[in-house]
Amino acid sequence: MLIQASQLIGTPILSVQASGKIAEVTGIIIDPDSLKTIGFYVGGGIVGKSDANILDLKSIREYSKLGMVIDSDDELLMKSDVVKIEKVVELNFNLINLKVETKKGSKLGHVADYTLDSLDFMVQQLIVKRPLFKSFLDSELTIPRREIVEVTDYKIVVKDEEKVIKARAENEDFIPNFVNPFRKTEQDLAPADTRTPDDKDTE
Q1: Given 60, 67, 70, 105, which residue has the most CB atoms within 10 angstroms?
Q2: Assigned CATH class of 99-170
Q3: Please, are residues 157 and 143 in contact by the beta-carbon 8 Å criterion?
Q4: pLDDT at 192 exceeding the cut of 80
């Protein structure tokens, strides 16, 4: 299941030991080499009482519509507690607002959001806001990760623009108007039809 990164912000961190919420997600820590989430910045709750404001992805027991479940607040870390996390945090890498262009140098826009796989929190799609002169035809592009060629501190390089647009057209799942999987649809909220086939035949 795909989750939009912007919708992860504010997700509750639930502790089994405390039997409730102890913090919430305030940011996402992504390794630029693999585009995989390795942890989350957290805040609120008991976090304000210590310097431990990072949740290692490995500490999450379960992720559901209720939030991210961990054993206890002992799972929360300082950036120096894990070498890999410390190195990535010091890079201060953030996908949002990175420029996106093709190998040929064509400007596609900048990253406005991105989607993650809820199983491993790997970046799956980039949602790119188009520059004004290209937004008349397409205000956003949704680029699958397989089209990404290079990631730097300043930009993301993808394959040719024609191939990116073709990949989008061929994959109906890659759409910018992401639907929150935890929000009930109008169909879900509608009362179920409990009539039997015989009842319907008599109408």
Answers
A1: 70
A2: mainly beta
A3: no
A4: no
